[in-house]
Amino acid sequence: VKVLPGGTELEPRTFLTLARVLIVTGKGGVGKTTVSAALANLAAKNGLRALIVQLATPQARLSPPDGWAPEAWQLGRLFGSTEPVAYEPSVLVSHPTGGTVSARAIRPDEALVEYLHLHGMRRLSRRLVASGAVDVVATAIPGMPDMLVLGKVKQMERIAAAGIPDTPSLIVLDAPAAGHVVSFLQSPRGLLDAAAGGPVRAQAEEVVEMLEDPQRCRVMLVTTLEETPVSETIETARLVEERAGVQLGAVLVNGRFPTLDLPERLDPEGVGELSLSAGVRPLEAEVASLSRAGLLRAARQASQTAQLARLAETLPLPRLELPFCFSSELGPRELDELTGALSSGVDSLALDVS
Amino acid sequence: MSGVARIGTRVGRVVVCVGPGGVGKTTIAAAVGLKGALSGLCVCVVTVDPARRLADALGIEGVGNEPCLVTPPQGGKAWPGQLWAVMLDAQSTFDHLVRRYATSNAQVDAILSNPLYRNISAALSGTQEYMAVEKLYELAEEDRFDLVVVDTPPSQHAFDFLEAPQHLVRLLDNRFFRLVMTPARAGLRALELGAQLMLRTVARVAGGQVVADTVQFFTQFEGMEEGFRARAKRANELLFSETTSFTLVSTPRRDAVDEALYLASRLGAAGAPVSSAVMNRCYPRYVGLSPATASLLAGTPLAPLVANLEAFRQMERQEDEQLARVSATLPEAALVRVPLLSGEVCDLTALGDVARYLPR
Asked: Cα(B219)–Cα(B154) distance, rounded to whole angstroms?
């Protein structure tokens, strides 16, 4: 799957506008949200207005959560904000280029009510929500809440396509984890198969149209270089293309250890000899620490390299790498570092295709 | 809670591993099981979607919904106890339940072939959790094991697991559903006016066929409701009984710890406090260099090793802050630190390495 047109000069802006909606997915814990933030931030630095869309409730659940779950704060924290992401869009950062990153969370029930309002069914929507009928239908028709969310994304994508001033030009969807994303993306197709009718059918048809158009929508796969996430990424890539019919954009490799030029011998004797020949005589405990930490780093680096090779061999997609940040809490500083890495990654992709 | 604490003739214990996605829950669950087998217990580990290589190692790859015996690695010592493992198949577990509570074969056929049932049992969020609890209950009821360890599904809100037994009951209790069911119960031919109105409303939004399928699906459950309800109640009692304990699994990263503590607080509020918190993949503890050594080694071929040690120690310090948050928030829970290992945990030997760090 070659997605980049050969010979084109590839600037980050070109890369990020290959499609108006980037659907970011990956196994739980690989850093989907962080990578979504870095993509949006890179777009904003290049003058685009990027909107990160998050899903406010667990999939297929229409009842509102009691209070905010901790995930609501994760995205804001990367931009130095202490507010949770809410239904109303809020600006997280503005760059001198005029580009911005905003974020909002979509809830299926709110999306449904809004849709019905827009289509002149205000009273109907109120009755549906008040009666609890929405819950039952959503439970019986599992694709419904997912489709409502995608319907809302599609509406925003239409606005982006129209190029209306001060509206987002790029939508980054922080999508469900790899295990769920295929059924998420299949939801409108499933509703059509279930012989849905009325406004739901019309909306499902429009969403399918968007999902299948590579100019409008692509899936970005996030992975770390470990056995399970890589396997899941390969499997998800196949299912996204075959079952959901959505074009793949790129693989974003998160958490790769920056290459360290480690000495060949990392055992305590080797480290001891090396320091002696440099005229230093560290304590035995110091030598042991240097050796143990070095061995762990070397082993992890080697297994990352092996996983990267497996990924490259199995998935012929453009690949961008984000370095591991030695920090257990990521904030604006780390986000800047990751955005920079992404930017140079895109630059070197250009070399590959030209 | 009464009754279920004693399951059959033997008091079996249940350990439920909960935590955010991607922190190594499956690995920890398997290691808890192995630890049990090493100390002479007959253990069954219920895993949901294990990594392929771990499944291979446990010998459960491609095996159906029934426990199979895990054999110790060749050349290794025999385990004093036994380790069994089962890979959850939500679909067949649900089918099994329907067969059990249906009033006739015709009802079984009607439900199993209903397209909505296939949707619900295969794809509906919450169903996997529901079936994991169901499997757990089934195994506990069978009285074959001293210990059953469950690895919960990777759900956005792992709390779904605790609510899982109520999953179908909640649906059956829904006002809309009750309205739809009324004519079937009372033998009335026409739906009550209110129900009709609501159905028409839904039909306007989603189409008449969808409504017809939904109504048909619910009416097919007629007569099974009580069975499901009673079973859900017993499964719920098992989850909250004294023999069940919850192990919180997380990595020492801020985001994961936030999610884990949120989960723990909701478990606690529901009357199911976590008894231990396993912090997985912690950077190992290293002795630092003296400032003198560090400055002497700068510019030598050992400089990268110095930088590496410093980076690892910085992680360790930051992780300790996260660990401190966990112990401050969960003072009653035993805090267990499992270090980042040099290889991936995908065979029984590596699993043994993890098990070494777990308490007895």
From this structure: 32
